[in-house]
Amino acid sequence: MSLFKRIVVGTDGSDSAREAIRQAAALAQMSGAVLEVVSAYEPVPSRRSEDESRGAPGDVAHEFGPREDVNFALDGAASIAADFGVEVKRHALDGDPADAILSVAEEVDADLIVVGNKGMTGARRFLLGSVPNKVSHHAPCSVYIARTT
Length: 149
Prior knowledge:
Elements: E1 6-10, H1 15-31, E2 34-41, H2 46-53, H3 67-84, E3 88-94, H4 97-108, E4 112-116, H5 124-127, H6 131-138, E5 142-146
Parallel strand pairs: 1-2, 1-4, 2-3, 4-5
Helix pairs in contact: 1-3, 4-6
């Protein structure tokens, strides 16, 4: 019996997130778990989407918008996980990143959530809140805070 069956990890494509992905993928590899990778985006006004896609060829114009960066981040995470030989499931959600991670963790009945420690130092964590701070306080399962900075 493996310790973890489903591990959830979030990514925004940053260096810190890539390190959290590596650590989550290593844990998934050791325990034979599925890696559930989450990336969130804030919806953008339709005017901005129209401006960004104007002039783009018709077959790619639909790729411009809030999911563009999320898809790029998920592709990068899947590439890292592939190096560890683990099964990856991707989740692109709109809204707050911490809420997205928590939602997926509940949805898939996760055994572990992996988040990076970025944003958890100093007074900012109390004033602004942070993804790792919010996730650690509201998680439906164990949380591993990876040292990424």
